[in-house]
Amino acid sequence: MRNHKVVSHDEWLAARRQLLAEEKEFTRLRDRLSQRRRELPWERVEENYVFDGTQWPGDTGPAV
User: Fold this and answer.
1) In angstroms, rounded to a whole number, what is the distance separating the alpha carbons of residues 50 and 55?
2) Quick one: which of 2, 4, 13, 42 has the most CB atoms within 10 Å?
3) Residue boundaries of the structural domains of the chain
4) 2: phi > 0 → left, psi -120 to 50 → alpha, else beta; which?
């Protein structure tokens, strides 16, 4: 196990608050990236596909 630095409560609290701010920024960035992914345009599928599996057997029907 690594030897960790031992600090006062005030030093720990300052470090924890800094980390929390970075974690919140990371969450906001991830949320924005996820939103951009959901907003990507769709691409028309011109072929019929057959799904082979226990949950969704069957094809997609005629291409629209």
Assistant:
1) 13
2) 13
3) 1-40
4) beta
